[in-house]
Structures are given as C-alpha cells and as structure tokens.
Amino acid sequence: MTLSPSHYLYALLMLTAAAGAQAEGDAEAGRAVFQARCSGCHSIGPGAQHAFGPLLTGVVGRHTAGSQGYQYSEAMRNAGFVWTEEKLKAYIDDPKAVVPGTRMNFWWIGSEQKLSDLVAYLASQPTPAP
Length: 130
What we know:
By secondary structure, the protein is an all-alpha fold. The protein contains 6 helices and no strands.
C-alpha cells in the first residue's frame, strides 16, 4: 500500500497536536511536583511566607526580585525581566543559564510534562488582593 503525501501530512498534524496537548500543564499534577521538588525551599498560596527561597505566590507576572522582604542575590536583583510561564520553564530547567550568578540550584525536574505541570501550578497561584 502506498500512502499519498496527504496521508503523511495528516499523520504529521496528528503527532504535532498530540505533542502540543502533552505540553499543556495540569495545575493539580503540578501541585504534587511542587510538594515533592520545591516546597523544601519555597512556599506558595494564601499566607505563604519566604523560606530558604522566596515565596512563589503570584510569581507569574512579577518582576525578578519582586517579592518584598526576601534577600535576593545581586544577580536576581539585576536580572531585569518579568516572570512569564516560558521564562519560568527555562529558569527551572537551567537556573544559571537564565540568571547567571543566581543562588538557586536545581536538578532536573524529571520530564517536560512535570515541568509544564509545575509551571501551570505556579501560574494558578496569583498574588492575593490587598
């Protein structure tokens, strides 16, 4: 059986759609990733306080070194960008590549899906209204 170019195109589109769907994060699964991999240094949610690392409530949309009351590294204070979901993924994947000189050390999260889930969870925790 010979497949036409349109069959190949259809197969490619289906694979691309499946890959895109997998890249979407699941905030509830991300909560488990946070508890397992991040909660030793960070806290998040209503009433969260700084710990060894800064609190992460409302991190998406916040400027680097933008959480009051935490003693950020000089590198983070000078980074000068706003945390987006894409920037968080890159930072969690390789902190020192995104912010050279950062104090954060982190080892591989385990999979692209876990990374997407974690960032979805972080994004689901907006800064509480004053």
